[in-house]
Design brief:
The protein is built from three helices and seven strands; from the N terminus they run ααββαβββββ. It is mostly beta strands and 133 residues long. The mean pLDDT is 91.
């Protein structure tokens, strides 16, 4: 029952029951990460030389700043990286048997889960650049 419940929750697997899975066919959705940059330059003369100081502010993965579910990659850790069945052996009639694995003591219920890592969070970067000619 756990195996078939897992199959139903995934759009690719539920529409390809009884078939071999194609290579790289079941994949998580695209992740859109947007960065935003503000730059302001200040020019001044030092003698006969023009100098410029640029101050920049970068917001990396700004979508994640707005909504914590945006801009986050997903991986298959929740489903043991796709290895959801294990071979248990054969019976007296030489019929193989399989069982559904457990992940952290529970049967897998989702194919993909958010990849929780600091690199997935939004970040702020401040920069100063000095330009002289």
């Amino acid at each position: 029952d756990a195996f078939f419940k897992f199959m139903e929750q995934d759009s690719y697997l539920s529409s390809h029951k009884g078939q071999y899975a194609e290579s790289y066919a079941a994949r998580p959705g695209l992740v859109h990460k947007l960065d935003l940059r503000f730059v302001q330059g200040y020019s001044f003369n030092a003698g006969k030389t023009k100098n410029t100081i640029q101050v920049s502010l970068d917001v990396l993965n700004i979508g994640n700043l707005i909504n914590s579910n945006w801009g986050v990659n997903k991986n298959m850790a929740a489903s043991n990286y796709g290895k959801i069945l294990k071979y248990d052996g054969k019976d007296a009639n030489n019929v193989p048997s399989f069982s559904t694995i457990k992940v952290s003591g529970e049967y897998p219920t989702e194919t993909y889960s958010p990849y929780i890592n600091n690199s997935q969070c939004w970040s702020l970067q401040i920069g100063v650049r000095y330009i002289f000619n």
